[in-house]
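step=predict obj=Fatty acid desaturase n=361
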Amino acid sequence: MPPHPLHPGAEDNDMLRQAALLTRDLHGPNPLIYWIDCFGSAAIGYAALLGAIASGNAALTVALVLLSISALYRAVLFIHEITHLDHRLLPGFRTAWNVGVGATVLLPSFLYEGIHAVHHSRVHYGTERDPEYLPLAHMRPWTLPLFTLAAVLMPALLLLRFGILGPLSWVIPPLRRLLVERFSSLEVNPAYRRPAPEGAFARRWVAQEAAASVVAIAILATAALGIMPLRAFALYCVVVAGVALLNQTRTLVAHLWENDGGQLSLTDQYRDSTNVPPAFPGALWAPVGLRFHALHHLLPRLPYHALPEAHRRLKATLPAPSAYHEANYRSLTVLLVRLGRATVHRGKDHPVPPEGSQHPC
């Protein structure tokens, strides 16, 4: 990681205190922004997909598919906000998102709710118990393209999960246990085993899974019977795969992935995460505030639309010795290169020079 004035494991208490004080007025989600941004993006994405299906022009089809991927990617990433929202402040949003976005693209929010909370735990972050962490910087170089390109399989896996295995699992208990443990989470750690849901969350899980299964079965059945044209089925799969590929690429640079499994202080969790402040093209490949991923780990309850202002305040107020400046990077490319070099120079005897950090972003 970049050099810093603190000993590893120590907390930058001034940064933590200032972060809390400077953002006290930013914690309320703006309902208008959430509803318009999320469902406006979804509407654009669906309209572009329908236009691509109807189009007879190859260039126009490609352009509309790319627009659909970009817009639906933004709408899908509100699943991250759903995991952090106080839903009393935004009533109905989770249900509407699951009906209008989650079920349609086979990504209901139960796949992420509960999982992401473990990732934010001070005890579990970066350890083998973290479902969203792998020490990618310590792995072989070929793992990075494999990790990224695996996202292309997402449409087939989701159709299998919700269209075939999900319905069967309700009458085959051993399959149900396997499905809950191994195939009901948006995770990057293959060793993670998900516990069975309980209480109100279990009831939401059943409703969301049923909705996604209805959509998946309808897609598979109409495609098999020739009711849905093969072109429409293929373009739907291309869009879902594109959304997954974009998200997998973003995931590659959300952290430095340098932790070797030990517990980290909150400050070092922040250092192992990244901010890419430039709005363009950051807002395209990391929308809904996710270009401020390190700041999000520092202040996980802050709504996405408040993160740019929070970053501005902290950057302007905190002095250079603060750990806050160490997690800011220029671009996606800088972080991809850094991670690639880390896999080439694996091991503590061959550290990666910390270029790309401490930029005036």
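step=describe
The mean pLDDT is 91.
step=end
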